[in-house]
Specification:
Blueprint: E1 7-14, H1 32-39, E2 42-44, E3 47-48, H2 54-63, H3 67-70, H4 91-97, E4 101-106, E5 121-124, H5 136-143, H6 174-189, E6 195-204, H7 212-215, H8 234-244, H9 258-288, E7 295-300, H10 320-323, E8 327-330, E9 337-339, E10 343-344, H11 347-355, E11 385-389, E12 392-397, E13 400-405, E14 410-414, H12 432-452, H13 468-471
Helix pairs in contact: 6-9
């Protein structure tokens, strides 16, 4: 890589699982532009979103902290508004302090939706489900005589479980708009100095609404078959059905046939093709403006999508299809590499900071990704993953994954022996020592995380009765009091 500080581009589709990408072995859809990133960078085969729901994943990315510590555990939470007064800073704020021009294009899922959180340039598209948000995409459509549509305004929406053909032409669709806005930023501001741009594609999140021309080229015969429902989580399935029947979606998945699942998968694959098209546009624009040789590109998603696996849809579980994510880091001069280190989506935060020459604050849980040319990251030992949402906790260590849900359902899988997560071993006497060990470690991690999440209430990390400084008038708390 150039000795100059590189430009940073973080591409993040919403709800993209890796097995629908060619570079991850997906055969149902051609993704040449995303595959090309993997061919000139590091592809991680064991990357996970520890908080596989849109908002918790994004809050952890912004602050580089585990969701148990941010307190953002579902889509009704967000980062506390006084986070700066508490001594915290987002990664774009930290890079801006280093002289980067920071930009956010597309879906960020902030509250309020037009917040900046350190992004100096914003072009907003909170679409797919946020029809009442008057964002930049809303005004673009209005100027063209169009508007945002709910999925239920499309023919076949309910019977096809959200799989539809978008009423808007491709040039008006949100992922096209986001890609073109990213290109416009590069054209206007790319030469002015180092920039750090996050591009949030709203797809392939439901509704599964591609343009017809992209759907025509999907090889349905190569689509991965849905993983069978082993009957391990009937209450979790009922909870998911109830959530999706609410007005934001309105689809009833009580009956979810194989044909319906395969239709959803075909439409999802077509949406992935659309995003691949725009990734190619962005990379071409960097190249056309002489910026490709000094730009690092990170590609990842906030979580996956069950797409009918286990008779489930969407995310928010700790099944493989929900919380495994693609992760690719392409830096100038890098050699194509595949790594199996256990890494997390939140590690993107520290990676962007280090690529930009910024220090990683000591309170962050994020660590730079190994193998991407950053000092001190090679050979880091694999460690257990701890996942947390309002409705579930998870620990994964080696081949074993233990998940506990608010429904009371507890799942223990040996992924080496049972990669499709069919045989729940939690009641197997032979697995009792494994269960007890994982359960104890998960409980300890959750306890520590909950305690740490109250850092703004802590008066100090030591016994202040022995502090002369505390004894003087005017003592104030130091933030963040996180170790």
């Amino acid at each position: 890589m150039s000795t100059e500080r590189p430009n940073l581009v973080f591409l993040m589709p919403d709800q993209l699982r890796p097995d629908f990408l060619g570079c991850y072995g997906g055969r149902s859809v051609e993704t040449p532009n995303i595959d090309a990133l993997a061919e000139r960078g590091v592809r991680f085969g064991s990357a996970y979103s520890l908080h596989p729901v849109c908002v918790p994943a994004r809050a952890s990315l912004m602050l580089g902290m585990h969701a148990l510590r941010t307190g953002v555990l579902d889509n009704t939470h967000w980062i506390r508004p006084d986070y700066r007064a508490c001594g915290l800073a987002t990664w774009p704020e930290l890079l801006a302090e280093r002289g980067y021009y920071t930009a956010a294009i597309g879906k960020m899922h902030f509250y309020p939706w037009d917040a900046r959180h350190g992004f100096q340039y914003r072009a907003i598209a909170e679409d797919k489900r946020w029809l009442h948000v008057r964002d930049d995409y809303f005004h673009f459509l209005h100027a063209q005589g169009h508007r945002k549509y709910h999925g239920n305004e499309h023919a076949g929406y309910f019977e096809n479980k959200g799989a539809i053909v978008n009423l808007l032409p491709w040039e008006m669709q949100v992922d096209h708009w986001v890609g073109e806005e990213a290109c416009r930023f590069i054209e206007r501001h790319g030469q002015a100095g180092p920039f750090a741009m996050m591009v949030g594609f709203p797809g392939p999140h439901c509704p599964y609404d591609p343009c017809g021309e992209f759907l025509d080229d999907v090889d349905v015969g190569e689509l991965p078959e849905p993983v069978p429902n082993a009957g391990n989580t009937p209450l979790l399935r009922e909870q998911t059905i109830a959530s999706n029947k609410r007005p934001w979606n309105g689809v009833d998945h009580s009956e979810f046939t194989r044909d319906q699942k395969m239709r959803v998968r075909a439409h999802y694959a077509a949406e992935v093709r659309q995003i691949d098209r725009m990734v190619g546009r962005i990379v071409d624009t960097l190249r056309d403006h002489g910026l490709a040789d000094n730009t690092a590109i990170v590609f990842a998603s906030d979580h996956g999508d069950a797409l009918g696996d286990q008779d489930l849809i969407g995310k928010s579980t700790y099944f493989q299809s929900s919380f495994q994510v693609p992760m690719i880091v392409a830096t100038p001069g890098a050699v194509a590499t595949v790594r199996d280190d256990l890494v997390t989506l939140t590690d993107v935060t520290a990676t962007l900071l280090r690529l930009g020459g910024a220090d990683v604050p000591h309170h962050m849980d994020s660590r730079p990704l190994p193998g991407v040319g950053l000092d001190g990251t090679t050979g880091r030992a694999p460690e257990a993953l701890i996942g947390a949402l309002a409705g579930g906790w998870m620990i994964q260590d080696g081949p074993w994954r233990l998940a506990k849900y608010s429904t009371g359902e507890v799942l223990l899988f040996n992924l080496r022996e049972d990669p499709l997560e069919q045989r729940n071993r939690v009641a197997d006497p032979a697995c009792l020592p494994v269960f007890r060990d994982l359960d104890a470690r998960l409980t300890q991690a959750v306890m520590a995380g909950v305690s740490s999440s109250h850092f703004a209430l802590q008066i100090g990390g030591a016994d202040l009765s022995q502090s002369a400084e505390f004894g003087r008038e005017g003592w104030t708390r130091v933030y963040p009091n996180l170790v």
